[in-house]
Design brief:
With 95 residues, this protein is mainly alpha-helical. The chain has 2 domains: 1-47; 50-95. It has helices at residues 2-45, 51-73, 76-94. The chain crosses the membrane at residues 37-62, 74-94.
Length: 95
């Protein structure tokens, strides 16, 4: 009877070990993919691959998106304000 429970315990332990190894490999690959993406975006734009640079980039793109949404609503003055803000932020970042 002890051999049966030993076998079951060993099988469960090997399954848990396999699961943990698979998750570690997945998240390790995910980390490398995100790092490669950030390096690619930063290299293409000529900015530093830092969190602050990426946040400023996201804010500039968000401002441009707000300008586009205002244009679709027909609010031309608001469109000019958001587009000018987005272009200014992105120009500070890129140049």
């Amino acid at each position: 009877m002890d051999d049966v429970f030993t076998f079951i315990g060993q099988a469960v332990g090997e399954f848990i070990r396999f699961l943990v190894d698979a998750l570690v490999a997945f998240f390790s690959g995910l980390d490398e993919a995100v790092a490669g993406f950030v390096q690619g975006v930063a290299g293409a734009l000529g900015i530093a691959p830092s969190l602050v640079g990426l946040l400023v980039l996201a804010f500039g793109l968000w401002a441009l998106w707000r300008g586009f949404r205002a244009l679709r609503r027909g609010a031309f003055v608001v469109t000019l304000i958001w587009a000018l803000l987005g272009a200014t932020v992105l120009s500070w970042l890129i140049y």
